[in-house]
Write a structure and sequence with these properties.
4 copies of one chain form a homotetramer. The first copy, chain A, is of the alpha/beta class and 257 residues long. Chain A contains 8 helices and 9 strands. Chain A is globular, with a radius of gyration of 20 Å.
């Protein structure tokens, strides 16, 4: 069976600026995530903000089934051209898994069409997650509820579109709730937002979190569908009316593009 | 302006069986709710389980814009005929506001098509509600977050259909979260589920809760639409093809029923 | 790999009452459908209305991954007990594929919560279907558009819940449109409605229709998830507060049921 | 009662380039639409592509309840700054009604997060629209079905998000179907896409189309909600824990922005 090809993108700034964070993620958050996904049987590579084309040129995306995204300090430094390119790939079938403060990344806001604002508080408080959609593939093998002992609070209201399927909801010690795992479909692509993963806590070392991310990558991977060849010229109405029953019209119609 | 006609239904058993509960709701939960809705400008009546036809014969429903439902101990004693009748009225435009343990009523499960199960615990713990959809009519004038000091816990997972619009989410002291206010549309009717209202706490005396229920009734009230006359005979294809541009076909087509 | 176990249910009245229909489906509509699904690698059985328990006792449903449903003349003769039983199985994960006039069956209306009315006309007119969600599993391998040369018209408005994912839309020669393939999720179960299949036309002999039904059965089959053991007693709040980080609470909480 | 303030935006190129189109819309498509909306009791203004800031500077949008958008030839000439500004206003509550080839405008694609592609054909063929959601405000007073005698064909598949509520569906003489009227909510704003309105046909002179656009503007207008003041500093967990029951926390929490 073919391995899923995952590219883990990280802005990779916190780890270089803070010894404390570097101690938690010595190979970067991207290195940590790529490591456990590889151990779970995926083919992984990493990409970071400071690389040419933010590490995401056309050929890298062409060779990516699922893109995992972690960013926080420097959303504005991702070029619009890269955002356009990633969006195009997602709409054509590439999966996108957006983590934590990536809710505010250009690419997530682009895919949602909204500002993706939320309430937040850094108090190292307890977060308890609940599985809301227990039969969804992303929840397979995950306990009905589990705890992150210390985490940044992300709270409602969170202005995302209504068609997101809620997989996880979070409870915070300080009194907030949050839709912490939400799954979207956009054209041929799948998008999953998952809020855990603040850089000052070892969240991605947690085996439950690792299993969720593995599930999410498998869910988001393209199903193998090959889009029809898309012709470029409009057709005469005569052509479309002369159909053969049960035969496709795909050579006689077109996508506007 | 025409007043909204509200019928408040209550199984009305707890108040007769417990002095403690009767002290909180001396006129019954239905009396309390009808009272504050009337004060808010609505025309109210009440109906209870032990009445003929469970208090909901055809003529009562014909004269009802919005039905409010509170039940707990005796869901099974509501007759299937009444459930059928209420469902028919909702699909034709009557609003339905289902409260607290009414999540498990025959009529709510009928409207949802699911079992409407949830987790629960009676510990008199604090419940904090958050407004998740701040621009929804049901949230107008409601603070972004507010507390019920002591309440029964209702928790996820809650197996309702995905197209419910989430207006409120709850946080519980003991560690649970819940979609506590969810709005559905079913054919011409609107359905709102709102979880606060355990019988041993004075929840319906709370002015914020009262405002939410008033908002919910106004939202659920029919918009005044009069369904087209529905003819009973199929039409010949010739008829439907002889249309006049921009004229309705409503005399030449039919609902299957 | 384990075969998917399919039970094809048919009221099986038309074929016994009409020589013309018996000529199209000599082994019944159920026999035809079971035949091509078996050829596609599934383990099939059939069940019909006149059998004991309408052919669907507990042990049959326990051994069914996906139930296919065709009914038309005798929806009212399916017992409510059977409808309750089928609904319970669907909510626990059994797939349900409802065909053609099954839109008006008790079980489909139960799952939807609406009346499931539509407009119709028998004129043997041309129906053209379009794939609206080309990357959905049910559309795999299906041409973007194809024709049923002669069919009964089913038209909008169709009063189903909004969370159905539209896979196919139909165009009719006489001027109507219809959401002819719609996919729902309800708790752990999946439901697909597909409108083609009027008894007087050889629709189920069409290889494109056969592929769609095979796809639908594979999509609706349960993913293998085993629900958690559900305990029956409420828990004290102390218990739920003494959680171990990252451990499930499933022995200390309960479903209300 | 306060009038709804509508700004009708048109790229205004076709009418200047083609005598045939100018004859249909002597005051521009924007002039025609603004005219009948004004006659319906709204306060209207117009804006066009070639004006400074594409006619949509901050003060114009600040004074707009609903923006109507018609564009076709020059989507790329609308500045990204204007698109950002319109999106911000929509998310804060301004309604947006996007017409015909505006499906491919920067602002509609921004709000949707998808490419918004569709199939099309110019053959002057008959389009029949059906009301799919008869109780929706946008469908009030509209016949269940009506015809545009000659129109450009827009057909499925149309890659918009799943949470759009389908109000109208179209049938085309040549064999296509289309979701021709779809309503979205995005944060505090409402977005309605309506496909009729090709420049070479007098579609906006049709009284049924005019009523639909009037309904759409009234539906999309903001409900009068004033967002809470949003503070800019995070709060300590102690603050959020010291809540007063039933009092808002709005001074102690914040939106991340």
């Amino acid at each position: 069976m073919k391995k899923i090809k995952v590219t883990v993108w990280n802005e990779y700034l916190h780890e270089l600026q803070s010894e404390e964070i570097a101690a938690i993620y010595p190979e970067g958050i991207h290195g940590c995530i790529a490591g456990f996904l590889q151990a779970a049987g995926m083919e992984t590579r990493t990409a970071t903000l400071r690389q040419v084309d933010n590490g995401l040129p056309q050929d890298v995306l062409d060779a990516t089934d699922v893109l995992v995204w972690w960013g926080h300090l420097a959303h504005g430094q991702v070029s619009d051209e890269v955002v356009d390119r990633v969006q195009r790939h997602v709409l054509q079938g590439m999966g996108l898994v957006v983590l934590h403060s990536g809710h505010f990344s250009k690419i997530f806001r682009r895919m949602m069409g909204t500002a993706c604002r939320l309430r937040w508080r850094e108090a190292g408080e307890k977060e308890r997650l609940w599985v809301v959609a227990p039969s969804h593939p992303i929840a397979q093998g995950i306990p009905e509820t589990f705890v992150i002992p210390h985490h940044e609070m992300y709270g409602e209201p969170f202005d995302i579109p209504q068609d997101g399927k809620i997989i996880f909801q979070s409870w915070f010690e300080g009194g907030n709730v949050f839709r912490s795992g939400v799954a979207f479909e956009r054209d041929r692509g799948k998008v999953f937002y998952f809020s855990p993963g603040h850089e000052t806590f070892p969240v991605y070392h947690d085996p439950v979190i690792q299993q969720i991310l593995g599930n999410a990558v498998r869910w988001a991977a393209p199903s193998g569908y090959v889009p029809d060849r898309i012709t470029r010229q409009p057709v005469s109405p005569e052509t479309i009316r002369t159909e053969n029953p049960l035969k496709s019209l795909d050579t006689t119609a077109l996508h506007k593009s």
